[in-house]
Structure prediction request, 429 residues.
Amino acid sequence: MRRWVSPPKTTAGLGLAAISYVVVDYLRHLSPTWHERLQPALWSILALIAVSRVPFYKHWSSEFRAAIPFVASMLFMLTCLLFEALSVRFVTAVLGLDWHSDTSPLPDTGQWLLLSLNEKLPETLVEILRARIIGLHHFLMLFMMLAFSVLFDSVEAPGLGLGARYMFTMAIGRLLRAITFVSTILPSARPWCAAARFRVPPYPHHWAQKYYVPYASDANAIRQIINQDIAYADTGEYLGDYQPDWGSMNFLINFLRPTPAEGASWYSLLKKAGGGCNDLLYSGHMLVAVLTAMAWTEAYGGCSSAFIWLLVMHSAQREIRERHHYTVDCVVAIYVGILLWKMTGFIWPAKDSMRSRRLAKLERIQGRLIQAAKDSDMDEVRELLKEVELGTQESQNKGHSKHLWLFSCATIFSALTIVLLAFTWTSDG
Prediction:
């Protein structure tokens, strides 16, 4: 009599692959020669191992069903990135380059703390904290490795379902981030950045000339505008902006504020907007890092998850140390990323939820399973266990279909938001 045994799951390979990837990639700073040799070899080995597993993968049907949510989440992500790029250029351009150069950075106690630790910690530890061990592309690649590990049964299938959740969560995070930093413009921790990267006018947009400049530094003027609740100052004649002919996209001129040197194409301006130069609350790099760590912890777990979180913390202190962000940007990104990942748990089931579905199904067929075992009917036992597996997958796929409308609604909402803001600004201007 043969006993049915569930296939073993790979437990350590993914963690070792992740650590190897980070270590080999860091060799670019320690030994470029060894990096050039080892990195192609590592990727070739990982690719060959993954390809060798493709013929034995048993969850292609669930991957195909998850493809539609994945594509929808990618489209939503691209829409949010477009809105974010527009917002980045706007908050950089609206006050002009003179404001960026002349405005002092905000006091940041996190930066002070790191500077004080440099004086107290051993030099070796300080050098480790300063080292550029991990970057944005590393976290994205670590997630790719996690998603492809479904080929080895290290992560619950479908991998595209996990990818859909990751991209959808990131898209929501990027949208909320753009809405946050465009609401109140904060000075950069690097005052020279805007003049070095952007060619926007040095003076403010006429909105800022009317509603901000006359009241920016005079306490009595601020008190008076609070009491009157109306912009009372006579600003005289506005300084005008360059007006290129962008056809149907002319409404973007008020957002992007092009100059004659770069005003030929609105699309080229948006491509240059990545990263921005004033402070963008919260950190987009940290959001990606936290989402990768959350996905890794929930889908895979183990000691390698602790390693990923250590990389997140190292990346956070480097963002603050190098003044790419204020401490508040990293702190907010960490808890926003955690909460957003928890909120989107319906898209891709965690191992615990899959296990609970299987147990519930087993309870329902317990009597039939016991009777089949008593009758030594192993074919019936196999059929019942197969029914449990298929029932769990069916329940999961129904969950994908049930929530697919959310992706479409989110995409439409974000697109309408961009159009509404554009035409509101145009009509006011």
Summary: Confidence is low (pLDDT under 50) at residues 1-10, 396-405, 424-429. The longest helix spans residues 60-93. The radius of gyration is 27 Å.
